[in-house]
Each structure stands twice: as C-alpha cells, then as structure tokens.
C-alpha cells in the first residue's frame, strides 16, 4: 500500500468509469449499434456530422446512418482514405450479412436424419415392454404389509 500511496490511480479509473456509464446511458456501449443512434440524431435539428465526429462517432457509422460523404469530407480531419476504408468496411459487412442469409435458406439446411425402420421397430418394442412393466400395480394386500 505504501508504494501506491502517491500514484493517484483513482482519478483515471473515475474518468473511464464515468465515460462507460455515459455510453451505457446513451445506449452507445455496443459499437455495432452506434450507427443506429447516429441515424436517429440525423433527424434531430442542430445536430450535424461535424458534431457527431467531434463526439467520437466513426466515419463508417455516419455513412451507415445515411450521412453523405460531402457532409463528412474535411470535417474533423476526415480524409479521402478514411472515407474509402469506411466504404470498404460497409461493403464487407453487407457481403457477410448476405452470405449468412444465403446459408440459412431452405436449400442450404442440414439434411434431416431419419432412423431406419428396424431402429424404429426396436424402439417401439422396448418402449412397449417398458410401459407394460412399469404399469403393473401392486395389489392392495401387499401394500398393507
């Protein structure tokens, strides 16, 4: 404890915890859903792309939210290269989403395994034997003893 006495680690922890709580309160903690919030803010008067960039929104999130590249270009240091990377990332996400949809379509499902008729007959015999043996009730005179 003496070695840490003057380090002041609580100050940094307080800042990071406050930041996380603010993100959680604004429902922005999940980075995959930030674009949805940006889309909502796009319709709010007096909230423009430069303000959202200043708040830490990524270019990709703003493009997905419907902002035009013209609105983002040269704002808060946004470069052509950053816009190109954001477009590529969005296209990659779209391709991945489409491939997942295709793999879950009817034609790509795993085949249904159907047991053979011999296996079904054996199962029926064993279950009927089990049902007969478990359905026997002890007579009343044995229950009194």
Short structural description:
Helices cover 62% and strands 0% of the residues.
Q: What does this entry look like structurally?
A:
It is extended, with a radius of gyration of 32 Å. The protein has helices spanning 9-25, 34-42, 49-55, 59-64, 69-72, 80-103, 117-134, 140-144. The termini are far apart. The protein has 145 residues and is mostly helical. The protein contains eight helices and no strands. The mean pLDDT is 75. Helices cover 62% and strands 0% of the residues.
- How many β-strands, per DSSP? 0
Question: Strand fraction band?
Answer: under 5%
Q: What is the arithmetic mean of pLDDT?
A: 75
CA-atom Rg in angstroms: 32 Å
Q: Which features would summarize this protein structure in a list?
A:
145 residues, mainly alpha, 8 helices, 62% helix, extended
Q: Layout of helices and strands, plus pairs?
A:
Blueprint: H1 9-25, H2 34-42, H3 49-55, H4 59-64, H5 69-72, H6 80-103, H7 117-134, H8 140-144
């Amino acid at each position: 404890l003496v070695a840490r006495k003057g380090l002041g680690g609580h100050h940094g922890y307080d800042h990071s915890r406050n930041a996380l709580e603010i993100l959680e309160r604004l429902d922005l903690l999940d980075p995959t859903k930030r674009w949805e919030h940006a889309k909502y803010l796009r319709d709010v008067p007096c909230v423009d792309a430069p303000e959202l960039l200043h708040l830490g929104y990524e270019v990709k999130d703003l493009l997905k939210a419907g902002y035009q590249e013209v609105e983002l270009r040269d704002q808060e240091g946004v470069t052509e290269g950053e816009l190109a990377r954001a477009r590529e990332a969005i296209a990659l996400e779209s391709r991945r989403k489409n491939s997942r949809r295709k793999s879950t379509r009817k034609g790509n499902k795993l085949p249904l395994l159907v047991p053979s008729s011999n296996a079904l007959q054996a199962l029926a015999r064993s279950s009927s034997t089990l049902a007969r043996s478990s359905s026997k009730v002890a007579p009343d005179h044995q229950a009194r003893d």
